[in-house]
Amino acid sequence: MQDLHSFGWYAAKLKPHLPKKAFQPVPTRLWGGLAYLVITVVALLTIGLLDVFPLFYVPISIVIGASFAALGFLGHEILHGTVVRKPWLRDFLGAVAFWPLSTGPKLWRKWHNLTHHVHTQHEEHDPDSWPTLERIMKSRFLCWVYKLPLPVRAFFSFCSLSFQFTVHSVNMFVIYLKEFNPKKRPAVIFEAIVPWMTWIGLLVWVGPVKWIFMFLLPLLIANLIVMAYISTNHRLNPTTEVNDPLANSLTVTVPKWVDVLHFNFSYHTEHHLFPGMSSKYYPQVKQLIKEHWPERYHEMRFDKALIALWKTPRPYQDRVLVDPSSGEVFGALGEGLDTTNIKKVAKKVRESDLVSSLSNSKNQK
């Protein structure tokens, strides 16, 4: 891998080439959020008030789930301060947008803005990074899981995308709550509990059958859409000691109409260079990156990125991806991964090394 640079180093090089308006909030993005909110409310009322055979609710559930995900993408943008700047309004609108995913704005800014963005792909400090082989070997359950063949693990991993965001969000709440100032903790707890209270209240109001189609199935769909993006953001990239977005982040390409629906969420490398910039201007940032550092920039068609995730193991060891069950090593982006012909690299982790890692982990216990 080439020498790494911080995101600030890249941003300083590119900022003079960008218009000043690119660094101003873009409140017109809220019109898209209003459209999704109206669609969601109308769809929920349709299921709630219409008594038909439950299978007829499925298409409506898909629409609700897609709207949940899109609102989450907008909430992500709002809480970076790129839509409105007033803190109370930013948090209020962010809370509304993240309501379907039941993630509070204060938790999100702590977990995502202040930790993930600062320590992206750092194996110890990034709460969203995939664990290293050494960390996996410390868990008896994960040791058993990683003995399964790679295709089997990949299948269950992709199935888990339908609930990963929700589970991870709850986990982040447990981890980060104690780091908040004691005076702010009640607000953080309130933001976490109230959305779930509304969804539980909905269950009591409409009953379990309609609730499945009004919330549970849409939540699974939203998780799947959101996590399909998040999984491609960094999991094919290596871990890095220096927070270098061109090394540790991946931009995926989707049809233009999808970018419109998802608020340009596919431009992830650009987002890590300028998290305080509206995603409206990320196509301009992408063009500048490709002009300055075309050999360092990683982009991939969305479907091919998902296929690459399916075909490669996830644990990291020495910046590459290793399969604990076979010892086979696959490159990461910039570290030997050929996305046009995904295969293991020439070297292979010796079984004795895997046993040694496991032994060391047990001794540490």
Automatic annotation (TrEMBL):
CDD domains per record: Delta6-FADS-like (cd03506)
Example GO biological process: lipid biosynthetic process
Coiled-coil region list: none
GO molecular function (one): oxidoreductase activity, acting on paired donors, with oxidation of a pair of donors resulting in the reduction of molecular oxygen to two molecules of water
Cellular compartments per GO CC: membrane
Domain Fatty acid desaturase span(s) in chain numbering: 55-302
Cited Pfam families: FA_desaturase (PF00487)
InterPro entries xrefs: FA_desaturase_dom (IPR005804), Fatty_acid_desaturase (IPR012171)
UniProt keyword annotations, A-Z: Membrane, Transmembrane, Transmembrane helix
Alphabetical list of PANTHER family matching this protein: DELTA(5) FATTY ACID DESATURASE C-RELATED, FATTY ACID DESATURASE 2
Protein name (Swiss-Prot/TrEMBL): Acyl-CoA desaturase
Organism of origin: Halalkalibacter alkaliphilus
